[in-house]
Amino acid sequence: MKSEREVKNGGVEEERAAKRKRLIKQSNAYDGEQAINVGDDDDVDASSSKVRGKHSLPRDCPYLDTVNRQVLDFDFERSCSVTMSNLNVYACLVCGKYLQGRSHKSPAYTHSLEAGHHVYINLLTEKVYCLPDNYEIINDPSLDDIRHVLNPRFSRAQVEELDRNKQWSRALDGSHYLPGMVGLNNIQKTGFVNVTIQSLMRVAPLRNFFLIPENYQHCKSPLVHRFGELTRKIWHARNFKRQVSPHEFLQAVTRRTKPFRIGQQSDPVDFMSWLLNTLHMDLRTSKDASSIIHQCFQGEFEVVKEYQGIEKKEISRMPFLMLGLDLPPPPLFKDVMEKNIIPQVALFHLLKKFDGETVTEVVGPRLARMRYRVTKSPPYLMFHMLRFKKNNFFKEKNPTLVNFPVKDMDLRDYIPSLPTAAEGEKACTKYNLIANIVHDRKPEDGYFRVFVQPKSQELWYEMQDLHVAETLPQMVELSEAYMQIYELQGE
């Protein structure tokens, strides 16, 4: 004997199947009379009313229980899986496929009849529709979480509280994550992009700027908007998963430049330099205007150039976003134990290059003696260890370990020539490490990792693609540092 509930459910399924057959029959009859453009949704209601003999009015949808949040992924490029068009694309909330249009003959309409999937969301307007009945589902709070995942939103009050948030979020699979400390998918040798993004997410002014789309709504650059979307997804506290895929951001990068492509390993220093300069040029409103990039990273140093045999000196001032530090050459021979010696050097000795007194010889068209002096230090100071060197045959890696402070690095102790503050003003030159990118193994088959420290905690985390794990501070100092970001205290 079937229970009353089973009989009732069986009747509902039979009614839905009969309704689908009736709509398919009506659709076939209508297709013989008139074809409707796949991408035109403005005339869908009028055309569908001819088929059904009535207007599509907003009402409660009986298919909301078929929505499957486990399969929803809004990180990929928003194009139809059938026509490959990016116009008027909907996501099926039952299977997660991207399909175009709501009109007859459209992939979404056909999918609703063939697969029996009825709930769709427009990826641009965030409106939810029921197909093939073609009515909008209005004022249903059960769909708000999907809209927030599709397009994360932050108020300015929420942005200000991010660095004080210690509450962990929970994904659909039951795993926990701290907003801002989520893994990034490696889309075929894109580890250099992931460590760069994770490092920039620690720069609070840059992060806060991109969390509010109104700050760059004047900009028409797809790269800027894709970077903003990725930033909001990383810091969103209501994600369905504990990882984010930077697919759309990578698509914008590959459309903009050729050296950085999916499937081709590149250098994070090169990518960081290109990304910051490109974002600056896209964000500035005039040729001489500043941007959030320069406000965070731009400093200035003085260059004194002397040529051999010429007494006259050339003095110039140049802006910088990153300082390159020369590592001492590694030893050529093994020790008495037949083992390679791994040399160590203090960051203090590397920064002497910018004290205005140390001479650096540059071999070019003419032999020149250069002296550098930092005259303006930025709020966020980036160092790049010149660890790789190319010769005529292969790429070499310098294994020298750099001993650096994690907290309270007083730049004036390293570079005494820094200008002093005016009377009545306090000049802080102490920096704290917030991100440290390292390289492991050989140059050809190695990989990049990054150590970061969230402001809401005193803990350090190791991040490599999807891997996010707590680590000891000693491991940060013992790694082969390749690029570092220091934050000025008080920022």
pLDDT < 50 runs, ≥5 residues:
27-40, 42-56
Task: Report how far the terminal alpha carbons are from each other.
Answer: 72 Å
Helix-and-strand structural type: alpha+beta
Radius of gyration: 29 Å
Percent of residues in helical segments? 25-40%
Outline the biggest β-sheet. Answer: 8 strands, mixed
The 3D shape can be described as elongated
- Alpha plus pi helix count: 14
Approximate strand percentage: 15-25%
Can you count the beta strands? 25
What is the residue-averaged pLDDT?
85
Topology:
Elements: H1 4-31, H2 44-52, E1 89-92, E2 98-100, H3 107-115, E3 119-122, E4 128-130, E5 135-137, H4 144-150, H5 156-160, E6 169-170, E7 176-177, E8 183-184, H6 191-200, H7 204-211, H8 222-234, E9 243-244, H9 247-256, H10 268-283, H11 292-297, E10 299-307, E11 313-320, E12 323-326, E13 344-346, H12 347-350, E14 360-362, E15 368-376, E16 380-386, E17 388-390, E18 395-397, E19 401-403, E20 409-410, H13 411-414, E21 430-440, E22 447-452, E23 460-464, E24 467-471, H14 473-477, E25 481-488
Parallel strand pairs: 8-9, 12-16, 13-19
Antiparallel strand pairs: 1-2, 1-3, 3-4, 4-5, 6-7, 10-11, 10-15, 14-15, 16-25, 17-18, 20-21, 21-22, 21-25, 22-23, 23-24
Description:
The protein is of the alpha+beta class. The protein is about 25% helix and about 25% strand. It contains 14 helices and 25 strands. The strands form seven sheets. Strands 12, 16, 20, 21, 22, 23, 24 and 25 form an eight-stranded mixed beta sheet that branches. The protein has a five-stranded antiparallel beta sheet with strand order 2-1-3-4-5, covered by helices on one side. Strands 11-10-15-14 form a four-stranded antiparallel beta sheet, with no helix packed on it. Helix 6 crosses helix 10 (about 270-285) and helix 8 runs antiparallel to helix 9. The longest helix is centred in the N-terminal third of the chain and has 28 residues, at about 5-30. The protein is elongated.
